[in-house]
Amino acid sequence: MVPTISVLVRRLHDTGRSGWHYWWCLIPIAGPIILLVFLASPSVPMDNLYGPCPTD
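Above: the chain's sequence. Below: its structure in C-alpha cell form.
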C-alpha cells in the first residue's frame, strides 16, 4: 500500500499538484473519479515546485 501511495503522490507532483490531493479518494464515488482525472492529465513540461521535469 505504501509504494502505491508514493507512486500516486509522485504522479500528482508531475502534474503540478500537491500530494495532498490524494485524499480526494476518500470521497465516495466522485473522489476516485476526480483523482483519476488528475492522474490522467499530462505532466508539466518544465520544472515545477516539486523538482525537475521527469522527461529530461
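Residues 2-14 form the longest helix (13 residues).
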